[in-house]
Specification:
With 268 residues, this protein is an alpha+beta fold. It has 2 domains: 101 residues, Phosphorylase Kinase, domain 1 (2-Layer Sandwich), CATH 3.30.200.20; 153 residues. It contains 9 helices and 6 strands; from the N terminus they run αββααββααββαααα. The strands form 2 sheets. The protein has a 4-stranded antiparallel sheet with strand order 1-2-4-3, sandwiched between helices. The protein is globular, with a radius of gyration of 20 Å.
Length: 268
């Protein structure tokens, strides 16, 4: 299909589409159409910002996602910037103020699982299988941070393994660099990735090996003095997390926080 074909399909389809994101087949090619949703209120972000300020945790300062056309514009800009730098993100095929069309990251007949699902699915196979997948996420952060960029929501669920094994990143409705210095954006990426994977590492019996890998990752020149200082300050102010129970007494979210804290503190 030509660029004009993609544009024509987008213009015809987005006003009819009910869900915010939907998948289509166009002449054997799989594409996704994402349209603007309602605008988001700012009161939640103000509350979260006040909490981050009170806790002296600037890395947790919320990054507003305004929704509506603003979110579409932000995601388009981020996809184009990251794609132009050679980073694997969905390719934009056509766009307008209210929606855009992007190419699916998969190959015909081949699944494109999220890295989060793959890591959790590998727990039963033991620490080696989980750690091999976990390293892919850290390597993805290296690739992004090495280009002086950051992700938006660097959870393992937003990293997708393509058919050729390369990790692609998705979900760019907000731009952390619009609200935070780059070093905090990159620390935010690292904390989000560890938070989303630490419990699976613990369940697989891989936490000690992960600490060694994490320590080596931190020691790379890419993580400079400002990153190290921000991480140390953040961990110091989150020391209370060590009091959370390790079992599911307070729910799975508390388990994830405790597992992430234990991995990060022991490795630092």
């Amino acid at each position: 299909m030509s660029g004009a074909d993609y544009t024509r399909f987008l213009q015809q389809q987005w006003p009819r589409q009910q869900p915010l994101v939907a998948r289509y087949q166009l002449q054997g090619e799989q594409v996704w159409l994402k349209r603007a949703g309602p605008r988001h209120g700012m009161w939640r972000y103000r509350l979260l910002g006040a909490a981050a300020g009170a806790l002296r945790l600037p890395v947790l300062r919320p990054v507003p996602n305004l929704g509506g056309r603003a979110a579409i514009a932000t995601e388009l800009a981020r996809l184009r910037t990251l794609g132009a730098l050679g980073l694997r993100v969905p390719q934009v095929l056509a766009a307008c103020a209210d929606a855009f069309l992007m190419r699916d990251l998969g190959a015909p007949g081949r699944p494109t699982p999220s890295l989060g699902d793959e890591i959790e699915g590998a727990v039963g196979a033991g620490p080696g299988a989980v750690l091999a997948l976990w390293r892919l996420g850290l390597q993805t952060l290296d690739a992004v941070h090495g280009q002086q960029q950051c992700l938006s929501q660097a959870f393992a669920r937003n990293m997708v393994r393509c058919a050729d094994g390369v990790i692609a990143c998705i979900d760019f409705e907000d731009d952390p660099s619009s609200a935070l210095p780059l070093v905090l954006c990159q620390l935010r990426d690292a904390l989000a990735y560890v938070h989303s994977t630490a419990l699976a590492l613990l369940q697989a019996g891989a936490q000690q090996q992960a600490r060694d890998i994490w320590g080596a990752w931190l020691a790379q020149p890419l993580r400079g003095a400002d990153f190290q200082a921000a991480l140390q300050a953040t961990l110091g102010r989150l020391a209370w997390l060590r009091h959370l129970p390790q079992d599911r007494r307070w729910g799975r979210d508390a388990q994830r926080l405790r597992a992430a804290h234990d991995l990060l503190v022991a490795a630092y």
